[in-house]
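User: Quick sanity check before I run a bigger batch. Here is a single chain. Can you write out its predicted 3D structure?
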Amino acid sequence: MTDDGAWEQQTVRARRGSRRGALVALGLVAAGALWVWAGSTPFGESGVRSPEPVERTPVEPAGEWRELPDGPVGPRTGATAAVLDGDGGTGEAVIWGGTAAPSAPLGAALDADAGRWRELPEAPLEPRVHHAAVWTGEEFLVWGGRARHGPGGAGGRELGDGAAYDPIDDAWRPLPRAPIPGRVHHRMVWTGSEAIVWGGRGEGFRADGAAYDPARDAWRTIRDAPIEARARHAAVAGDGELLVWGGEGEGGQRFAGGARYFPRLDTWSVTPPADTGRADATAVWNAGASAAAGGSETSDTSAGSPVGGQMIVWGGVPIGDEPDPLRAYDPMRASWHRLTAPPLAPRSDHAATWTDDALFIWGGRTSRPLEDGAVWDHAQGFWRPLPPPPLGGRVGANAVWTGEEVLVLGGFGGERPGRSMAWRPD
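Assistant: Done. Predicted structure follows.
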């Protein structure tokens, strides 16, 4: 950072890999100095390289914010959100559930281009928090969670029911009963043909799961994972497979390991651990890159075909004092790599999403709500800070990518906490 507070970047030269994505030289700002790290750093190595002089140029804040029209959402956390894109959708963004005020609707939809909100019809579900939801391309599926009784759902029971919202018909339908117990802080991903639910907490921590097929309107149980039962873990769908990492288990244990599930074969394989354990980390799938500079040469191809992409995780608890690098898991090489740390304090309860070519991180908290954020361009390999937002900091907000801009919905804190905002790239 310069004396006047402007962020600086280093000019780096990209190093192209053999796959679709580009791996780049990465910069790390630490203790007022800028260090050069060539490529990504495999865990298990020291990662220490000698600093070299670099040319510094000012980095302008990325993109611009705009405040969205007032709507019925209100302040809430523990909600889910999605963009209803594709031929089966309306292009709207929806947010549903969470710790909304009793007078607020459970769900609402936003047409960001027109600046128009509408309330969703009443779902055949009781109010809940910390449920899971996915968009299938035709329906918005909701399942599980904790009944909303008191602040944050305190005192509520774990729920095992769900429903599907069709935006074209503007109508809900109940899902058939799942073959697994109700739970909270679980994860659900869409593989392209099934919604897979795994983990969570309900009657103890869970290592089981189930898959729902909308075409058959039917569930199937999936094989228990060969890892410790957990909740608050990270999960993504990569090339039709489920990747699970981290989370929290009995006694507050934070896990550094995870597993990979192959739906076609109903089999799991254990993935190697990262260098730290986290709960409530955010995770995105970058389909256009491999994390592959160095590291293990052992590909995890024991079941199914190798995946051409990487899972990127960041943040969560425990919150440390040191810069927190991105961590990327490459399923093809079965290896983790550290990528560059964002110019942000470590945090949890932040909003994160993957755009077409970048990772967006904003808000969250340490001991207070935070209003800063940054964008990581994986092709160029550097971070740019976000400009100051129009509504202040938020905790527990949802971020979704429309194809043109990131919508930040819900959350607590900041100015006019019931309002939403949008960030558009340069």
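The two ends are 22 Å apart (CA to CA).

User: Great, the batch can go ahead then.
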